[in-house]
Amino acid sequence: MTAGLDESRHRARNLYDRGNYAMAERLFRPLAESGDSEAQYYLGETLLLRAYDYDNAIAWWRKAADQGHAGAQSNLGYMLTSGLGVEQNNDEAIRLFRLAAGKGHVEAQYNLGAMYDLGMSVRQDHGEAAAWFARAAESGSGPAKAILAYMYAHGEGVAKNVERARALYIEAAEAGEINAQYNLAIMYENGDGVPRNHSEALFWYQQAAELGQPNAQLCAATMYEEGLGAKRDLKTAAKFYEMAARNGSAEARTCLGALYAKGEGVQQDFAQAARLFRTAAEEGLPRAQNNLGALYDQGLGVDQDDGEAARWFRAAAEQGHSTAQFNLGQLLRKGLGVEQDFIAAYAWATLAADSGNHGGMILRSSMNEVMTRADIDRAKILARELRGKIRAVTEEG
To answer: Which residues in the chain belong to E strands, given as ranges?
Structure first.
């Protein structure tokens, strides 16, 4: 009887592993109905993978969990935390994770650690979280190694130990954990507890970037553009900026737009630059706003429009972008796209100059020759007011 059961399980499991879920279901079902917890667990898995049948998958996992099956307890706990196919119940999830984790189930150990880390239905306890992550890491869990490495790197729940963090990051990174790859790259780029090594940083940024990590894509692109860790390669930089841009990075769209505007690494295309700058500018990125304003000012890729140039320069200037402050000052002095206003022009030039912008210094100096002392004093008062408003905006952001 036992031999026949084992053979049926083996055949069903082989079909499951090969992705033949319809046939696997046919073999698992009679075993599950006879009360076999392993078959109940896999029948639930098969129903979910084959038909997204949450209701019946959960029903079979409950039967298996009631018999002490750790995998079923862990899966059911996950469903209860996420509210997938069942009403969310973190308290019950914690109970099930504890049962499964106590039997050595790696995913349950990781999930239990996550619940302590986030304080979900338990008092937040980073030390307890680290203990469960450590148990999962010892069993080979890449995600657990990655988060435990972060905790060692920042002294969160454990004593800070950068060398231990690096070792865990390497283990997780080599197993393909993209966040570990990204964080390891940061350590090498900044020299955090390890000798600074740009080539190692670029290697790990690129590994994570190829797996879809947006921040790593942006960092890899920047390093290729600046020639850090490898020979300067603008074509490769453009490739990674494009990847990050598609993943929603406004910073990447701005950088890619700059390459299109200069024709570096890509064929020069001001219209494409304008499109990229616009999407980032509309998200509030000051550099993109200034760059879009410059295209309107010069009529590159868009119809020349002083009013639009002034609008975008002002948007960036009000966020503290010194080049935009100078550009806006220029338009205010000349009355292009805005009403001519020497006092406002002087004020914006002052802010730019105070940030070290050479153009702002020259503009302010030139205006000293055409303004009265009283108007200059008013301009200085306005500059102080603008500086306070900008400080409030940047601190709030």
So the answer is: none
